[in-house]
Amino acid sequence: MKSIVKSFYHRDTNTWTHVVYCSVTKKAVIIDPVLDYNLNNAKTSTQSIDEIISYINHQELDLEFILETHAHADHLSSAAYIRKNMSCIVAIGSPIQTVQATFKKVFNLSETFKTDGSQFQLLLEDGDTIDIGKLTIEVMHTPGHTNDSMSFIVEDNVFIGDTLFSPDYGTARCDFPGGDAGKLFDSIQNIFSLGGNKRLYLCHDYPQKKRQPQAWFLCDKQKVKNIHICEKTSKNEFITMRNARDATLNQPRLLIPSIQVNIRAGELPQAESNGICYLKIPINVLSSE
């Protein structure tokens, strides 16, 4: 085993950010980094990601990539801030282009906003590999929650984004544009097929009662204990359950700011003539509630 994983939990958004590095060469990646955002006053800060950068510097790691599992709707990405402070490449699945095109219309973004994914330095396809020192990261397209969702396989570790949550919490919603419960079922089956001893690293954990946040669960435990899907769950059963559950869910608290920043690879919208950046709020568009 050449890979070492250090996970950091962001309590405000229940997000796990993972630092993965090669124990031999100290080459590293960050998966799903978070930018602090106060919804009450639209204030951003970097306290959480600065702690991770401090860890990277203390371990004398050489950060080469930031990997986004998808364009998140529940937290803002700090990828742009990291990239300004450390020379690295920001990568995401190539279907980000369809996500950008969808939300360009929703937020009525200007013609200068490109929907070709060029805000990111690398667009990933299913089956791609990324070399990090003596490690090879395999890219697996795992759509369903969103169409651009990717999982990353590093030795016995699989970073699964929002496909699965903890066994006591279930699976990701599929009612965002491009979401599809049938595709999510298939993606989870592909993850399960990787082997029971794989560690499945979460992007989010919502601890139930006395349980502490947990970064990963063994694949075998997810197969047996996940409350939404197990080895005996049929595809039709899952689709029916998932669609019914999604119909009852509110939109994520940080959906509106998150999407506008994350489709820009973590950059804020360009400042206007007064030097201030603005985020748009579309009225009566994103929910029927």
Written account of the structure:
The chain is an alpha/beta fold. The chain has one domain: Metallo-beta-lactamase, Chain A. The protein has 7 helices and 15 strands. It has helices at 47-58, 79-85, 96-106, 181-192, 219-225, 235-246, 255-262, and strands at 3-10, 15-22, 27-31, 34-38, 43-45, 62-67, 76-77, 89-93, 122-124, 129-132, 135-141, 150-154, 157-159, 199-201, 216-218. The strands form 3 sheets. Strands 1-2-3-6-8-9 form a 6-stranded mixed beta sheet, covered by helices on one side. A 6-stranded mixed beta sheet has the order 10-11-12-13-14-15. A hairpin with a 4-residue loop joins strand 2 (15-22) and strand 3. Helix 4 (181-192) crosses helix 6. The longest helix has 12 residues, at 47-58. The model has no long low-confidence stretch (mean pLDDT 96).
